[in-house]
What does this fold into?
Amino acid sequence: MSKKYDFKPESLMMSHGYKPELSEGSIKSPIFQTSTFVFKNAQEGKAFFEVAYGLREKEASEEVGLIYSRINNPDLEILETRLKLWDNADDCAVFESGMAAISTVLLEFLAPGDVLLYSSPLYGGTDHFIKEFLKKIGIHTISFTPNDTQEDIVKRLKNSGLANKLSMIYIETPANPTNALIDIEMCNEIALRYSSDDKKVYLTVDNTYMGPLWQHPLKHGADLVLYSATKYIGGHSDLIAGACCGNQDVINRVKILRTFLGNMAAPHTGWLLMRSLETLKIRMEQQATNAEQVANYLNEHEKVEKVYYLGLIPEGTSEHKIYKRQYNSPGAMLSFDIQGGEKEAFKFIDNLKLIKLAVSLGGTESLVEHPATMTHAGVAPAFREELSITEKLVRLSIGVENHADLIWDIEQALAKV
Ligand SMILES: *Cc1c(COP(=O)(O)O)cnc(C)c1O
It folds into this structure.
């Protein structure tokens, strides 16, 4: 084997970044259930703090010393070393929730008076944080939808009179729950256009829906990639966590604010996520295979009006071009319009036997929900219509079950409508 051979991320998820000889030869990392770490001597304690608090640059050969579990902990460090591989990022920071990762990034890179440009619809928690909290601290916001062109967006920025205050562009693609696509490279062009020598406009992508396997935003010009690790990364619907990946400079900033907000993940959560990462690829691939079968079934069903699934985007459209460039799979999230409205949607949902009614996504079990009255109930009704989030829309997160069982379940529930 040549020296330059690189193992694929899925081959490194079992061992990368962990040294068994530091843990009694244990093949798996123990849970370092400890609040603090003993220094060998006072000089070492001083050196560790100098690096942790940014008082001096770390030397090339120097490892960041373990100090206190709010600052660092082996379970989190090993997890971050593995998680960053999927996005080919310099570094990663893990958090106690997706919202903790999102709010920390927004607080670190925005200041009062700045403008945040964001895509709509966003995850409900993010939307609330932007509209309520960021507004309260004097951050201006401008939104756009997947239907807007670059010209539309630039025009809106110019008309606001605040274009020179643009500091961050924040997007979610595909949009939840309709799978509408946003072109990351187009957003990067806008970010570059408004960046200057002394002010960089950061591009942030919430990649929860398609990452870390099927979309790699850093490759398309994003600076920060955010995850609710509660979803595909955790994958078993048994924990809440978040993550942020990017280059060394941005993650250093994110980690410093994390230290002072104290919203890092706990060691046990870090350990669970390492266990999840070992099967990440096979889980997600199985979920995508199942989703394709379900989407094709729904697409042929007489009681289904429309299926929102990346694998069904018509060829030759501009959306298909973005799909081909930005994604390497249609993913495992899909929505569909059932014939009728809320009554028919509820009848279908309440008659499912295997697929469970719950919000969240990306877990091993398939889930169903009704966006208009659940995850997107907080969106203004007129705007919901504009985004195609109507009463007939049903969202599915497809799991790892046998796809024939999923289709049987959907078939019998549709028959009762
Ligand atoms: C779930 C979710 C979040 C929030 O993550 P938590 O782990 O629940 O805090 C953010 N963005 C998207 C797209 C999500 O699906």
